[in-house]
Amino acid sequence: MKVEDYNPKNYLPQGYYPWPDKINANVEQMGIDYRNWIDTDYVYLSENIRERYKSMNLHSCSARMYPYASYERVTPMSRYVIFHTIFDDQLEYSTKEEVSRYCDRLVAIFRGDDLTPEDPGYFIQAAKIRDEFRAFMPDEWMERLAEMFYTVTRYGAQEEANYKSTQTVPSLALFKVLREYSIVIFPYFYLVDAEFNIFLTDEVERHPVIQRVRSLWSRIIAWQNDIQGLKKELSKDTEVMNIVIVLQRNYNLSLEDALTQAMKIHDDDLAELVALQEDLPDFGKYQEEVKQLFLGWGSLIQGLNTFYQVDTNRYDPECFAWPDKEPEALF
Fold this sequence. Notes:
Helix content is about 65%, strand content about 0%. It contains 15 helices and no strands. It has helices at about 25-40, 45-55, 60-65, 70-90, 95-110, 120-135, 140-165, 170-180, 185-195, 200-205, 210-230, 230-235, 245-250, 255-280, 285-310.
């Protein structure tokens, strides 16, 4: 198989997952808001990069991931999805130390730090996300979101930066652990809490089944992302942290064989996840809330895949918002 012949729809077609495929009723207004944010608080990016982000229709990603949220609740969710997408993209070539610096400042803002005159619009958006969520979610929930943002950035994005800078790949075993965090999806699950106005107690939150389910969901979205974005990543030599590329380099596989192995890993994780959903332990009075979260988490996976297939040019190599400034330009 040649790279130019690769089509992710042959591997992850729309409707691949066993959860509802819906879109938020506020999607049109979300699009208006999204483009306004790009032109208001992301002006430190070049006009070319801003136009590329507008063409990606990232508001549709938020609308499909959180289809049940009211407009009040989906607005900070959409801000977060856009903010985090730009964060991830524009630090593509950053060092571990640079990623750490940005992470520390963002976590401080999420936890309540005031903005300074030196903070660009990127950090202004982080403060708006914090304030909008605080209007309807408890402070303890916001702390969970901030802590999880730190965790995925510290143990995911920062660790991944080392491999990108050296153009080396880890073993498959290590990659599976790192990619679970470097996909930086764990905070998105807490947004489902906000979607349904649910706040799990610490006892339920720490339950091993909940922790395992979140791990599987994160991995599935990582494999989904790697398969959907493969053509973009194969268009440059700088991207190595993709399950298909890791399989190729570790085992000297053809592109087609590596894709087959990647899909097997994806489908095995999906099968385990569905089995756990069908045989939940007893969460007592929180049983129905946990079931509702499963619906939201499943819709997130399904919606994200549909977004890739239907709504966006994001992973077209010619349309991706490759960084055109040094990371220091963010400050």
